[in-house]
Design a protein that fits this description.
mainly alpha; 60% helix; two-stranded antiparallel ribbon; 494 residues; 3% strand; 4 strands
């Protein structure tokens, strides 16, 4: 059973999106199809030819052509959406070009897609970027004046729904914790106990319905709030669980003050040396232990605050009239480089909170406190969100592989013999994998040059991704495949 503390529920609810209704999902299917076939960024975000970059007067002409392409593609998408819903209205819109007549529909249309993506980070991994960049351009002063309205609407949240109905006191009700908890399968619980928990949750939901429903808040809206908070709890629990498990494995198998010895000949030392085995940092065992542990604690805090960070990231991205972006070649192709003041301040708060907890516990922060944002390392807030959505994709497969290997060794005698003969048994193999991970995934590697590499905040995650890329060359990679490992990146649909 998993439920998050309700002490800050009023604040959390401001960033918890509402679950989509049946009518919303009909619009979502149209949006997914439209964005899948739309090649907005491919047509708009093309840098000028290198031969013309320094030609006098070429930059203004290129900017004018790019603005024209933006308007053409935005208008084409808006017209196509209306045509897909009603051919006659679409034909009339193509003739009149009065997009402001559909202002409410377009704002609702794009809000549904953004809300769905925030609730399901693993979905729409390419089309969401196209959508945000299209909205970014549509929200610029020139295009907004042409369309006659702002296409960006606030994301509907639990807080906004209850505030509109003047029922915010529901967020302070202690019963809400039981009504929104996630009930997970647990080996320690029988089927009957799980069923009792489900019944208890259902009774809690109906208690809130009886207590708070009424004009202007219908019963289904109360249930929608409970289920939306439960969805939020489910995301946070599922994405934080791999981090918690890796922290537990680090504390369980490695000592903070010195190497772990297994027998006379085996010593698991976490120390790393710059220049050796691809490392770009030099740490003693103790320093590397705390560096890895503090990085995991930071990732855990970022995931816990992800919905607030996501909301601020969208605000930064879509505020082109306040903070314009510039299209630059960052060394990894053209990117929209844009400052992210709201997201940056929030990240500083999260970092200071983790650093404060480290100091209170008697330690000191290891590594740099530099946060890259709005530069060639992390060009904009979308890259930031995408980067930290990868944490569970990195840690999850490693944790699942270790769990599956333990089960395999216990239940399959042939597999246990294979592990014994090839790797010295499951216990030795687990330590070998963890030893390599806590060294190689936190060694400052993975960047294009030594200036960008190291111990900065986003560089820690870059090192972890670099370890993932080297996994096929590891001697224990065959056992990952043995238990069904398919990759770190998951499905990449749309």
């Amino acid at each position: 059973v998993a439920a998050l503390p309700s002490a800050s529920m009023r604040e959390r609810a401001k960033f918890i999106p509402l679950r989509l209704s049946y009518e919303d999902r009909k619009i979502l299917r149209l949006a997914e199809g439209a964005l899948t076939v739309c090649d907005y960024t491919g047509r708009v975000d093309a840098l000028p030819p290198q031969g013309q970059a320094g030609v006098p007067g070429s930059a203004p002409r290129w900017q004018a052509r790019r603005k024209q392409r933006q308007v053409e593609n935005i208008c084409a998408l808006l017209s196509g959406i209306v045509t897909a819903l009603d051919y006659d209205q679409g034909a009339a819109l193509l003739e009149s070009r009065e997009y402001s007549e559909y202002r409410s529909f377009f704002r609702h249309f794009f809000e549904i897609v953004r809300r769905y993506k925030i609730m399901n980070p693993e979905k729409m991994r390419s089309s969401y970027g196209k959508l945000l960049f299209l909205l970014q351009d549509a929200n610029s002063d020139e295009v907004r004046e042409l369309l006659g309205f702002n296409v960006v609407a606030p994301v509907k949240t639990v807080h906004s729904l209850l505030a509109k109905a003047k029922r915010l006191e529901m967020l302070d009700d202690p019963v809400l914790e039981a009504a929104s908890m996630e009930i997970l399968p647990d080996k320690g619980l029988s089927r009957g106990e799980i069923q009792r928990l489900i019944k208890r949750k259902e009774r809690a939901v109906e208690h809130l319905v009886d207590k708070y429903s009424g004009h202007p808040l219908p019963p289904d809206s109360v249930r929608l709030c409970c289920y939306s908070i439960c969805d939020n709890n489910s995301y946070l629990n599922s994405d934080r669980r791999p981090v918690d498990q890796m922290l537990q494995l680090l504390d369980q198998h490695f000592a903070p003050d010195g190497p772990t010895k297994k027998g006379e000949d085996v010593c698991y030392d976490l120390s790393i040396l710059a220049g050796a085995e691809g490392s770009r940092l030099s740490h003693s065992h103790a320093r590397q232990f705390h560096f890895a542990r503090q990085s995991l604690l930071l990732w855990r805090s970022i995931i816990g605050d992800m919905f607030r960070l996501w909301s601020l990231a969208e605000q930064d991205l879509l505020s082109t009239h306040e903070v314009p972006y510039s299209l630059k070649d960052t060394g990894q192709g053209p990117h929209r480089v844009q400052q992210c003041p709201r997201t940056y301040r929030a990240m500083q708060q999260v970092l200071r909170s983790v650093q404060g907890a480290v100091v209170v516990s008697g330690g000191e922060w290891v590594g740099s406190s530099m946060i890259h944002m709005g530069d060639h390392n992390v060009p904009n807030a979308l890259n930031f969100i995408d980067k930290y959505n990868q944490v569970a994709r990195i840690l999850g497969p490693v944790v699942r592989t270790l769990e599956a290997l333990e089960t395999l060794a216990e239940e399959d005698a042939t597999a246990a013999q294979l592990l014994d003969e090839g790797y010295g048994g499951f216990e030795a193999l687990r330590l070998e994998i963890l030893h390599d991970f806590f060294r190689g995934a936190f060694d400052g590697s993975g960047a294009d040059n030594f200036y960008d590499a190291g111990s900065c905040i986003d560089g820690r995650l870059t090192s972890a991704w670099n370890w993932c890329n080297t996994l096929p060359s590891k001697p224990y990679f065959p056992v990952f495949k043995l238990v069904g490992f398919a990759g770190f990146d998951g499905e990449f649909d749309g």
